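Backbone geometry:
***
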Amino acid sequence: MDTVATRGKTDVELERRIVSDPKVMAGKPVIRGTRLTVDHILNRLAHGDKAEDILAEYTYLQPDDIRACLLFASRCMEDVSCLSVAAPA
């Protein structure tokens, strides 16, 4: 797999921060060691929260956790089979 350094971290190092366990949050991807789902973090960012806002609220998170969520979303978008966007009429 191709890795790209992200502020000193490789993709592989960031990817390890996201885990999925059927016993935690019904198997949704979460930040390792937490019950914070990737979609929750992405939703917060999409609605205008800055990473600093999220990190201030969840003091146990690290900036790389936010980056890992963004990388996870990017990886999901590489698989076009997950897209369900309607074509313009």
